[in-house]
Structure formats: C-alpha cells, structure tokens
Amino acid sequence: MIAVVIPCYKVKSKILGVLAAIGPEVDRIYAVDDACPDGSGKFIAESQQDPRVTVIFHAKNLGVGGAVKTGYRKALEEGAGIVVKLDGDGQMDPSLIGRLVDPIVKGNADYVKGNRFYDLVNLAGMPVARKLGNSFLSFISKAVSGYWQVMDPANGLTAIGREALSMLPLDKIDNRFFFENDMLFRLNTIRAVVHDMPMKAVYGDEKSNLRIGGTLFRFPFKYLNRFCKRIFYNYFLRDFNIGSLELVMTLLFFAFGLTFGFLKWGESIVSGQPATAGTVILAGLPVILGFQSFLAFLHFDLLNVPQKPLTDSLR
After folding, report:
1. 8 Å CB contact between 8 and 19
2. Taking CA atoms, which of 17, 134, 240, 275 is between 20 and 30 Å from 177?
3. Is 246 in the same domain as 230?
4. How far is the C-alpha of 84 from the C-alpha of 165, rounded, in Å?
C-alpha cells in the first residue's frame, strides 16, 4: 500500500489541485492540518469527496516535520508499505509519485528524494538565491549525513519504505524546517540506502513559511551536532575500522604539530632567537601527516555510503 502525507499550513489556495492530481497508484492520503490559521484541514474535508483522503488536525502548530511525523505514524498504523511526503503548495508534481517509489518497490532503495539539480534545464524556474543557497547547503549536508552522492537535501518530495521508517526514532527527528536534513542523518545511522530522483523545480506565487534569519542562526548548530553524532556513531560506537584509525591519527598529528609549533613560536618570540630548521620540521611534519590522514579518512567516508537496502522487494 502506498500512502501520501501532506503537511498543510497556509496552503488553502493550492491544496485541492494537489489532491486532485494524485494518481490511482496511491491508496491513502493523509492531510495533516498543522493548526493552520486558514483552516486548510476543514476546507479539505468540506471541499472534496476522495475516499482516500483522511484529514488529521493538530491542536497546536508543530512545524512541517511534526506534521509529517504525525502522517508517518498514521501510515505505519494502517499498514502502508511505502510513504510519500508531498508538500501542499503546488511546487511538486504528484504525477512523479510512481517514478519516486519505483526504486523502493524494486528493492533497490529505502528512501528516495527529489533532486532539482540533476539537470540544468530543471533549474530554469528556480530563483538565483535559492540555487546558491541550496548548493551550499547540499555540500554541508553531504558531510553531515554521510550521503555524499545525494544533492538538494531540503527537497520535500520524498518516499520511504516501511522497513526503514519503522526503524527511525521519529520522536528525535527535528519538527521544523531542518526535518529533511535530519532525516538524512537518521537514515545514515540505520544504514539505509538513499537515491535521488531528478525532477523539475516549479515556482509560482506560493509563499514560503521558512524564516531565513532563524535558519541562519539555528542550522549551523544543528549541522555540527548531527555531524559529530554521525562520526561518533559510525566510527567509534558501532564500529572501529580503518576510517576510525585514520581519524584518530589525524587528531593526534594535528594536536602534536600545532601544540609543539605554537610553544616553540612563543619561545622564539620571548628569547628573540629564530627557531632552528629541525624545530620547524618537527612542528610542520605532523601537520602534513595529519592532513594526509584526514584526506585518507575522507576517501574512506566517501566509499562508506550504505549500499545494501534494508527494504526487500515489495512487488
């Protein structure tokens, strides 16, 4: 069974068109009214007759992530095998759902997400500021999540298999606009296979609820937190491999080289005597070796992307 979750917040002008465009391959549709001030949920319930649609109401606003997680729990409860997340603002084409879920149905992936950056033609409608911002965030997200092969981490068109979804700690995943990025981090901790699906960017007169100022303040701390957790989980808690050793050597070499170098530099300033060539080499060599160890670790991390899907074939 394929289910679709649609977080609804200030999407009253677009939501009926989105619902009408969802094809027969979908068995259940969960529209989650996230305490919408425009009454999106009530409007949906009163304005359409699709028996697949279930409207869920939040007493208070939880954020896009909170709304999606409510839909995820309902879909799991009702036995969905694949759950699609689709925004209600009309930016995503519901006709893509069949192509989106195909890798999961075939047992080749656990999580599939849209990628607006795969083809330059698909970026024609995206504002320049969004292109630059998404490109920058994509690089950071690659390092944080460990999915170096994926792009466009904030893309809201996603599909996830039941096996992977049931393994995720939904209560710990971010409730707000960091939700999609946090999903990738959590998916890596369970070694889920993630695929990108090329899609076209569609922009009209819709208004984003994302506040740039708050994002710039909160996201860096969230990224740093998830990155440190991923490294600790994957290379020290759950496994200790050659990448772990390379990372340890990186830290040791840098710590010794920089500490020794700064101490000798301070002594030279105080004494007025320039450091000897041997002292400079002894300080610089560990830093060079540390950099080489870091490159080796980065190479290992690039190859350590999950390859074996958790989800068996659902055909």
Report:
1. no
2. 17
3. no
4. 11
Q: Which alpha helices (H) appear in 95-172, and where do they start and end?
A: 97-105, 128-145, 162-167
Domain around 260 = 240-303
Same domain, 71 and 86: yes
Distance (Å, rounded) from C-alpha 282 to C-alpha 276?
A: 10
Query: How does residue 315 score in pLDDT terms, banded at 50, 70 and 90?
Result: very low
pLDDT in tens, 266-306: 888 888 888 888 888 999 999 999 999 999 999 999 999 99
* Number of separate domains in the chain: 2
Q: Are the CB atoms for 99 and 157 separated by under 8 Å? A: no
Give which of 12, 5, 10, 4 is closest to 61, Cα–Cα. Answer: 10
Q: Reply yes or no on whether the pLDDT at 213 is more than 90.
A: no
In a domain, 313, yes or no: no
Tokens of 93: 């084409």
User: Which amino acid is located at 75 in the chain?
Assistant: A
